[in-house]
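haha ok so turns out i had the wrong file open the whole time. this is the CORRECT one, sorry everyone. sequence first:
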Amino acid sequence: MEKGKETKPHIGIYGRRNVGKSSLINALTGQEISIVSEQKGTTTDPVKRSYEILNFAPVIFIDTAGIDDFGDVGKLRVNKTIQTIDKINLALIIISENNFGDFEELIIKECKKFSTPFIIIHNKSDLETLNDDLANTLSAKYNVPVIEFSAKENSNKEILFNLIKDIIPENSWELNSLMGDLLKPNDVVLLIMPIDTEAPSGRMILPQVQAIRDVLDNNCVCIGLKESELDFFLKNNTNLKISLAVTDSQMFGRVDKIVPENIPLTGFSILLARNKGDFYNYLKGTPKISELKDGDKVLILESCSHHVSCDDIGRFKIPNWISNFTKKRIQFVVVAGLDNIPGNITDYALLVQCGGCMITKRQIINRLKPAVDAGIPVTNYGMLIAYIHGIFDKSVSMFKK
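then structure:
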């Protein structure tokens, strides 16, 4: 699970080796999607599997290595298992033979650290049923459901699905509208969409597609064009009342000079930041760019992996913009996907998160949580670019209201 490629709710499966984690996934999905073996340690690295839960939502099940693995390689597997917990929306903690102890406590401790809800499941109940005293003790201690399950007999499958539906936070799978609270039916929205080297051939980037769909979902009129046609369009449609203009962050400086002052202007990345990022910490953290000093380290978090070009925004443009704006000698560290952050979080003076169109809101919030807890300012691509181009206040003013 090195990079987040899904915005669906993530459900992690945790437990010791050979408690039936893979068997449980196969039983729930009705598919042989995880390897099952009597040999301990069959699952080595976290494996993601997509599945649609009826009358709920598509989800991602994550099959993980046993938390009781040992040896040098085993410890690495356990670490990879632990590292998935800040990226999930629900944990299923699997036990068998009424065996509950330090290993399970470790997972629960990590769940509580990230406020991750969890369910305790006693698997292989066809071989040994759940002890009532243990069930009552765990339920009272952790205030969570404790249920029996048999992957072999597929017992309590519907009960477990209903618990999943009840416990996964609703905002994990029901995304709020990007612009719904800013618009009313029949409003005209202008989407200014550059086609650059990072846009997939023959397609548009995901934030642009999401914005188009959001405008249509809110029963508004969507007008899309490139920045090169913007001036021509506005001069020839002076009587058209435009309620909102949205542009790619990299075009802020150019577009702001063309769009009239009476038209609210923001960016695709800023809309995403408000929809699924740590928006209010971004608001506080962005102006801290002006306080960067010589020798400071800035961490740039890309949430997807892609081919790197000389026009790459995270690896080239943003470092250049920050350096030119601050006139300071800044060190830049770029982390792609959801890989580990190198060093200590306190090594960094600023974190810059991308729009996060390819990962969940929970993954973004937990990704930034160590920095927020340590008092390190955080921002995102769009808000940083708006600040550097001098239109930060204008681009977020509608949200402050």
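The chain is about 35% helix and 15% strand.
again sry for the mixup
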